[in-house]
Design goal:
The protein is α/β, with parallel strands linked by helices. Helices cover 56% and strands 8% of the residues. Strands 1, 2, 3, 4, 5 and 6 form a six-stranded parallel beta sheet that branches. The protein has a three-stranded antiparallel beta sheet with strand order 11-13-12, with helices on one face. Strand 4, helix 6 and strand 5 form a beta-alpha-beta unit. The longest helix has 19 residues, at 282-300. The chain is elongated and about 85 Å long.
């Protein structure tokens, strides 16, 4: 029997950096990937969901490199993190902020808002001898490369900034960990850099490696399988992929069996008894796992009971007759009922029950493992008893939904978190309430966002903490989006007296002053932030926009040109306005930015003023009218007067 709450194997989560001692079976892969990463400017680590890319990097490759003295940054990713409220980071992009904060987790969040990829690389190379590689990785890179993300302005700007930084720092070696359907987009980055690209396709485990991964962790707790049992368990999951791959074992399904063994140990079973029970009914264990997973997904997506399971049985399994066991078959991505949306399919893929494949008719999916065909026939008809979720588990579900862009699901889990913990002061409660504010802000539901952030402030026990300062900054930014600079000033003033978050609150106070037509006072506040941090990109962006609005074109261009790479639409529109003082701006530039900034009042106003300077009064009037109708953000009274003046002179 093992102590309650402990046990071998990590369960169904990826291995992390603290799990290196329990990470077995990938020695060859670790050696291969470390060699490629050190030897190439761009390395693609390609693999199906659940094959173990994240575990390989965190628990295998990076610890080995670090122990050998390599210069390697923490693994970067694009996942949502509740570090700062969305309003104070969205100008330059949530994905960029997520990436930079994951590369430097100890950095002040306020500083990260003002950083670029280039600046991060510059810091890391400042004291390094030339020619020695600096190893940088992005896990889950498909979030910026696949589907709608490829046309997202935010992700496009991230890729542009990454490309510029890689050109500037040839000693930086980038590894992208991604799924096979995004490999071509990643190769395009290598071609753009003119750099050699290495590719490593991570296969499932070899049977001998799977046996090691199963057998070794229990030894640390003085537990040992009966002779031959690990090989028997692994044999149940082994599939022969043919030459040159040969027999392989899917790591994620091995983890499912390990998780069931662990549950048996925690219930007081011996390892021998638990192993025999699993061996006697592998399909039952897999069916129970599928049932729990699919019932949760149907609940998450508001579908009828086990709707997803029925679709998977019909689509991905077949039996010629009632006497023949079901076998797995692939199917086109388009072969699904309307209720099974792209979001549902991606969720099933992320839970490692499906993986993408290529079919003669186009892109398709297939079961993660052929044995799931039998397991799907045994799905439970009723929701199984699920383990009690703690508030931290619910909060992580909300964050994962935010990462996937599923705001409805994130809202559900954030509210469930709050319902579980009540009204007390806690970091989890503040985070959940802030997520609700972020959701409302991203939906442009500004009144709801204000209420959520105010409730987050009310949950804080320390009124002088950085968290409170950041929340006041968020409140100020939302008030500006509503076109209410007076309320923005009040909120920014409240945050300004908290020293811990001073950089961000100085910037919000300066913006609020600017929108009340106090340009000189606004510049003074932004300069105070820049005195503390001269290279703060967001401060330079804000000051450049203030100068452009104030008709100080050269000062505006000095600031805006320094943040031109991956600049948000408002900065690019302000740059066009500043340039229009020197020469007429071509109409196509105005029209291109008009499409991207169609809901942004200031972008449209800057473009209207630029069009008026080039003498196109009709276009200027159109743009001014659109600026007055824009809602995200709205024009404040100071800027509404400018738009109305353009309309009156058409």
């Amino acid at each position: 029997m093992i102590p309650h709450g402990t046990g071998p194997w990590v369960g169904l989560r990826p291995f992390g950096k603290d799990d290196q001692a329990d990470f077995y079976g990938r020695g060859t892969e670790i050696d291969d990937v470390t060699g490629l990463w050190q030897g190439h400017r761009l390395t693609l680590l390609i693999g199906d969901p659940g094959v173990g890319k994240t575990s390989l990097l965190h628990a295998g490759v990076v610890p080995v490199l670090a122990s050998n003295g390599a210069r390697v940054l923490p693994i970067g990713d694009l996942s949502y993190r509740m570090i700062l409220p969305a309003p104070v980071i969205t100008a330059r992009g949530r994905a960029l902020f997520a990436l930079l904060s994951s590369w430097q987790p100890e950095e002040d969040p306020a500083r990260t808002v003002g950083l670029t990829v280039t600046e991060v690389f510059r810091r890391r190379t400042a004291s390094a001898p030339s020619g020695r590689p600096i190893l940088v990785a992005i896990d889950g890179a498909e979030y910026a490369l696949r589907g709608p993300a490829t046309s997202s302005p935010e992700h496009r700007r991230l890729r542009e900034e990454l490309e510029v930084a890689l050109r500037a720092f040839p000693d930086v070696h980038l590894l992208l960990s991604l799924r096979p359907d995004c490999a071509q987009q990643a190769r395009d980055l290598g071609r753009a850099l003119g750099a050699s690209t290495a590719e490593y396709v991570l296969p499932p485990l070899e049977p001998s490696s799977a046996i090691e991964a199963l057998r070794r962790p229990p030894l640390t707790q003085h537990l040992q399988f009966d002779d031959g049992v690990p090989a028997e368990i692994v044999a149940t999951l082994t599939v022969d992929h043919g030459p040159p791959v040969g027999p392989r074992v899917e790591p994620v399904l091995l983890q499912v069996l390990c998780a069931e063994l662990r549950r048996g140990l925690l219930r007081g079973e011996t390892l021998s008894a638990a192993a025999r029970r699993v061996l006697d009914d592998v399909d039952g264990v897999l069916a129970d796992h599928c049932t729990r997973t699919l019932f949760k997904l149907t609940s998450d997506h508001g579908l009828p009971t086990c709707e997803i399971g029925g679709w998977m049985r019909r689509t991905f399994t077949v039996a010629p007759d009632v006497n023949t066991p079901h076998r797995a078959v692939p199917a086109l991505q388009s072969d699904r009922p309307q209720v099974i949306t792209d979001a549902v399919v991606r969720a099933v893929e992320n839970r490692h029950l499906l993986k993408p494949c290529r079919l003669p008719g186009g892109d398709g999916f297939q079961l993660q493992h052929p044995r799931l065909a039998s397991a799907l026939q045994r799905l439970g008809e009723e929701s199984p008893a699920l383990p009690d979720l703690h508030a931290g588990d619910l909060l992580r579900e909300a964050e994962q939904a935010m990462s996937a862009g599923d705001l409805k699901l994130a809202d559900k889990y954030a509210r469930a978190t709050l319902a579980l913990i009540g009204r007390g002061h806690s970091e989890i409660g503040i985070a959940a309430q802030t997520i609700l504010g972020d959701i409302a802000y991203l939906r442009a539901e500004h009144e709801t966002a204000l209420s959520a952030y105010e409730q987050a402030v009310a949950r804080t026990a320390d009124s002088r903490s950085p968290t409170v300062a950041y929340l006041f900054a968020a409140l100020a930014r939302v008030h500006l989006h509503r076109g209410d600079p007076t309320s923005a000033l009040d909120q920014a003033r409240s945050g300004r007296v908290i020293p811990a978050g001073e950089t961000i609150t100085l910037l919000e106070f300066g913006q609020a002053l600017w929108h009340t037509d106090r340009h000189r006072a606004a510049i003074r506040e932004v300069n105070a932030a820049l005195n503390r941090d001269p290279g703060h990109v967001e401060a330079l962006r804000i000051r450049g926009e203030i100068y452009a609005d104030w008709d100080r074109p050269q000062q505006a261009l000095d600031d805006l040109n320094s943040v031109a790479v991956a600049a948000p639409p408002s900065a690019r529109a302000a740059c066009i306005l500043a340039r229009s003082h020197h020469a007429p701006v071509p109409e196509h530039e105005i029209q291109e930015l008009r499409a991207e900034g169609r809901t942004h009042g200031l972008v449209l106003l800057y473009l209207a003023r630029s069009a008026r300077r080039r003498g196109d009064l009709a276009l200027a009037a159109e743009l001014a009218g659109e600026a007055l109708r824009a809602t995200d953000p709205r024009l404040t009274q100071h800027h509404r007067k400018q738009a109305e003046d353009i309309l009156s002179r058409r």
